[in-house]
Amino acid sequence: MTGQLAFVESPVQLLNVLEWAHTQTAPRSAAAEPAGTTDGAPAGPRIPVPRTPANAAPSAGDPADALTVVVLSPTDPMSRGQLRRMAQLARDQGLTVHWQEARGGRGALVRTLRRLARPLRSAERVIIGDPFSRYVQLLLTLFAPRHLTVVDDGTATMEFAAQLGRGERLVRWHRKGSLGPRELVLAPVTTLARRRLAPARGRTVEIFTSLPVEAPEGVTVTENAYAWTRDTFGPPRLTGGADLVGTSLVETGVVDADHYARVVSELARAHGATRYFAHRRESAEKLHRIAVETGLQVVRPELPLELIARRGPIGRTVVSFPSTVVHTLPLALAGTGVKVAVIDIAPEWLRATASPRAQGFLSGITGTAAHEVDRLTARASHPADRLEFG
């Protein structure tokens, strides 16, 4: 029987699979740690699991304690690039990583299902990063694992836990509530997947998270303290200024593009920021506008921001819009002296197309940020013109 099978679709999901695997390994003495470096940083403890060739399909005959990571590759170049680098980090730590072109044109879905069906049915534990993913939900209709672990992939973990606890259908927080034609067709898949994501007789469910979630009945919540990240990288060299962290709230139709650009400009001036770390889903057009209008150096990170920040260099202050990083960066950067701040999203920034739940959800992210995180509130000092922060 295959031991443990992880499905990831984003770099952050793969990072958190590494963090989960790290918690499953008993600490070893410093003398037993391997020598060498990882990307220029001291090497951390390796995760002792068997390896197979990178292009080999998952096998139903793998050892019972083996962890195989299946990358269901996305199509956008930024995500693919980050995933390639994260996959190599995972292999360096001893994990088996299988790259699956799950969205590679006509017939990709059928090929993927055919290749994964047998190991899926025999897996003792399945680890997923995005319970809202249609691809993952379809895979969940094929099998009912005895043990299921959900790792973080952004703030959607908070919404998943809340919806599971309330017995609601799974809908991303930034989506409108009404069902479109595609959602109606996929409704039976979503309904079955939701049942497979809930604890039941013979099935345990774990949420491995750094976020403040209330455990649904029967679900185990395990803290993700980013121990692997801290053990493997850093501490970073600190620069004298501030860094801004971008968000894809414009791309998801939540925040107005003009308001966003104006706030970024004001934040840069108020905090003396010099760099803007782009979210992997931000459009090239928006990033060009930010660079031209603010003079900020736009950086497209090659790895998740938690690793970039931990490796350094990083600003002494990191300012972010509401996102997972206001919870994860304080953990990854613990003890380094870096201050993290989060900016509230004002109601007037939201687009008319934004989900009715968007404002409350974003406020909840800000309000539940770690106590080490400063909260910034934007207010207009001139009618719809200049913004000040307090």
Which overall shape is indicated by the principal axes computed on the Cα atoms?
A: globular
Task: Give me the count of strands.
Answer: 17
Helix-and-strand structural type: alpha/beta
Strand order within the widest beta sheet: 5-4-1-6-7-8-9
The mean pLDDT is: 81
Strand content: 15-25%
Helix content bin: 25-40%
How large is the radius of gyration?
Answer: 21 Å
- Reading the helices and strands in chain order gives EHEEEHEHEHEHHEEHEHEHEHEHEHEEE
* Biggest sheet layout: 7 strands, parallel
End-to-end gap = 57 Å
Low-confidence stretches: 28-56, 60-64, 380-386
Q: How many DSSP H or I helices? A: 12
Description:
The longest helix has 16 residues, at 77-92. The protein is 35% helix and 20% strand. The protein contains 12 helices and 17 strands. Strand 4, helix 2 (77-92) and strand 5 form a beta-alpha-beta unit. The protein is globular. The chain has helices at 11-23, 77-92, 108-122, 134-140, 156-166, 181-196, 227-232, 257-271, 284-294, 305-311, 325-332, 358-367; strands at 4-8, 37-38, 41-42, 67-72, 96-100, 125-128, 147-151, 204-209, 219-223, 238-245, 273-277, 297-299, 314-320, 339-343, 374-376, 378-380, 387-389. Helix 1 packs parallel to helix 2, helix 4 (134-140) packs across helix 6 and helix 10 packs parallel to helix 11. It has 390 residues and is of the alpha/beta class. The strands form 4 sheets. The protein has a 7-stranded parallel sheet, with helices on both faces.
